[in-house]
């Protein structure tokens, strides 16, 4: 059994084929340390099948060459320790995912090879990404996530009580029915070099203003799939004090169509370190 010890976001970006992810978060680490969850139960819940103690377990992280350097508070150290108490053969993959990828790239499952195919990395957008037609999704009591189509519909805004719009794009137009003072644009393209973190402060100030004024805001980009969900996830991290993977799941559960690109996923991990 291949066990990916990295975060859910890292696993979602790329992982070794057929590996399962145990979500290396602070919450899981604490539950393992305190004995609130058994490591075998953790694997069983993830696999959705019964696991025998005789199974060979192979654990990997991103790129560690020597696990002896792990401190006793490191998640992988705790995971390995708990596994060796249950399973007869537990092995750590030297060099991690990056080491294996360098030697056997065909064994790595990447997000961009399992979903849609887009234009080169210099592309300003993802034209092959279909525009979502699911309508706006309520993420927080005062915050909806949606697409340009949702933003331009005055009827949708009236039905959902939306009086503010946060536009995460360079090109999506401002809705005519929204006052200038109730509109904010974050000028971001959907590509693999754009930096969104520098805009978080002003975006969050706008969202906080909406919340404090008992308003309701629609956060949107073109499709409501990559840019605006990234911003919504980051705000959920800050507002609800969640780790990146927990915030990602929180938003994903409410709007399953979201799919932030690799660049934005990486920035969420970077932002997590600043919280």
UniProtKB/TrEMBL annotation:
Residue ranges of domain Tyrosine specific protein phosphatases in the record: 204-258
SUPFAM superfamilies, A to Z: (Phosphotyrosine protein) phosphatases II, Rhodanese/Cell cycle control phosphatase
Membrane-spanning residues: none
First and last residue of the signal peptide: none
Rhodanese domain mapped to chain residues: 1-109
PANTHER family linked: DUAL SPECIFICITY PROTEIN PHOSPHATASE, TYROSINE-PROTEIN PHOSPHATASE VHP-1
Annotated protein name in UniProt: protein-tyrosine-phosphatase
Naturally occurring in which organism (per UniProt): Lottia gigantea (Giant owl limpet)
